User: Fold this.
Amino acid sequence: MLTKRIIACLDVNAGRVVKGVQFEQLRDAGDPAELASAHSRAGADEIVLLDISATRENRATLADTVRKTAQQLFVPFAVGGGIRSLEDAIVVFEAGADKVSINSAALADPSLITRIGERYGSQAVIVAIDAKRINGECRFEAYVGGGRNATGRDAVAWAQEAEERGAGEILLTSMDRDGTGAGFDCELTRACSEALHIPVIASGGGGDTQSFVDVFENGKADAALAASIFHFGLRQLSDLKRELQSAGIPVRWPC
Assistant:
């Protein structure tokens, strides 16, 4: 049985890790390299760094931040934010990333998924989708621009297209649950997981152990990503993995 991954996310703004609620009310959480190293030592299977202001500010990802963070890690490292072209992706890979995550640029030009995949392999391409429920129903719309702009695209249909174009994983964030600690949106995650053949990373709402159990069992996620609960000491990542293993969820045991 394949193990389920726990991924620590670093949302970076102006070179500092921040975290908010539903993409707003940002507060400082620390230095990216220091936090990445700490999460890795605690048992994170992967680290994701998202430069959350790069797209809005129309600039490239902060390569120096990526480089300094990569130097601290011995687990897979993914980077997103401000990657609008193959050239942008090359800079990030050369700075030490193992994977890139693309969101707004992929929707604007889906062929970007294919171009990056052809150069680095589909396993190196994550398509991030920020999704929001439509009128409280089990339908979800994709948003871009740091969750500010509705696209009119069905999130699950967009995930299917991303897979067809060569994405190796989908990073699926529930905007409704982001930063709340109220639990992942298992309906959203399950809808996407059942429609795809590639791994789905659940994001948005991770809180107690049961919320992770639920998203793996009921949401059928391959991995779960969280930020606030690790950055601010609300949960020890190593303790979470031990509790998941006790609940019958196969995870990599912390070193």
The chain has one domain: 5-246. Residues 24 and 109 are 27 Å apart (CA to CA). The mean pLDDT is 89.
